[in-house]
Amino acid sequence: MTRPVHTPHASLTAFPNPHSRLAKRPRRSYPVEMATFHAEDYVDFLSKITPDTQHEHATQMQKYNLGEDCPIFDGLFDFCKLYTGGSIDGAVRLNHGLSDIAVNWSGGLHHAKKSEASGFCYINDLVLAILELLKHHARVVYIDIDIHHGDGVEEAFYLTDRVMTVSFHKFGDAFFPGTGALDQVGGAAGKYYSVNVPLRDGMDDDGFRVIFKSVMQKVMDTYRPGAVVLQCGADSLAADRLGCFNLSLDGHADCVKFMKTFKVPLLVTGGGGYTKSNVARCWTYETAALLDREISADIPEHDFYYEYYADVEYKMKVQPTNYIENLNTKSYLQDIQQKVFENLRALEHAPGVAMHEVPPDSMIPEFDEDDLNCDERNGGETGRDARVFRDDEFYDDDGDQDGS
Ligand SMILES: [Zn+2]
């Protein structure tokens, strides 16, 4: 499950970053882009519904699984446009060789379905970003280390061999969303292109490192993707309010570091995370890892949210707990690994996925000048940027409207 987060950015800006890479403000994505995956009627409903009008549309609210886990709140559709624009633009930058790695911590809403919201995910930015990558790459790997199964992304590409989805998640005990069993491997042309690594409570760093690295090494060797999308949900960390794994920051970040070593264009997104201070720690730490930077063990004093970090003495640390038992025995993990390897071996003998005809470049409509120059954009947000971006960061706010 995923939640919008604001703290990682504030925490990131607390660290000096004199050689900062480019920080880009993404454009808002357009409803027509969302509808390249989502049903038009669903996108249209999301764009119009408000907290005040939702009670007049009970049937559709139910049809689209809105309410409860997926509440309607003020600015919902703008939130969708922003996080989706970030992921699509990240993919566009990778496609054009403008970045080796693109990061969108506000993205990663992996549960959203074609015509349905789920687990606080409304628009599936990951699916849309992968569709963008598929315009330039024959094969894309999607990896999900959120504690919840990456069901929305898997479902979207379940029948195709052009995307291999690999999800590491807690499975069993009716844990949300309930899918992601080991034998859920894809169908039709996509058989064996969905990889599920179902795990039990208490997953620790050592076990996770072994299973993640061995499976991903095999996937990369077998499938040889042109681009990788990595969803880094932080609810797999120890002490998460909803999670039941026991990973430290290093255990989580090692996945990011490992995928970086393949030097394949990489889109990194956020995802779930319910102990807010740890979400911020995690994605700050992983940003540093992606930039090959060491950051201090002490979180520097700063103006925003500093008090949140009192929980672990203002340290960049997520402490594994000792009150959760690790139910992932060595033999359990070995069995899973063996089964996943068997499935991947079936692919080694299959003909490689041919590079299909390359479709036209990103279908991004001409930008709307009104949108670009609206007060919100030039006044409100730029004003806020000035407060949260450090002077020594290079903040770039141009050029992205045309998707360059
Ligand atoms: Zn989650």
> How many angstroms does the end-to-end distance come to?
31 Å
**SS summary, helix count:** 13
Radius of gyration: 20 Å
Please indicate the count of domains: 1
What does this entry look like structurally?
This protein has a six-stranded parallel β-sheet, sandwiched between helices. Strands 1-8 form a two-stranded parallel sheet. Strand 3 (140-144), helix 7 and strand 4 (163-170) form a beta-alpha-beta unit. The longest helix has 20 residues, at 76-95. It has a single domain, classed as Arginase, Chain A (3-Layer(aba) Sandwich), CATH 3.40.800. The model is unreliable at 1-7 and 354-404 (pLDDT under 50). Helix content is 36%, strand content 9%. Helix 8 (205-223) runs parallel beside helix 9 (249-260) and helix 8 runs parallel beside helix 11 (330-348). It has helices at residues 7-12, 31-34, 40-48, 58-63, 76-95, 125-133, 151-156, 205-223, 249-260, 276-290, 330-348, 369-373, 375-388; strands at residues 23-24, 101-104, 140-144, 163-170, 194-199, 227-231, 266-269, 395-396. It has 13 helices and eight strands. By secondary structure, it is α/β, with parallel strands linked by helices. Bound molecules: zinc ion. Zinc ion binds next to loops. Residues 1, 146-148, 233, 235, 271-272 line the site of zinc ion.
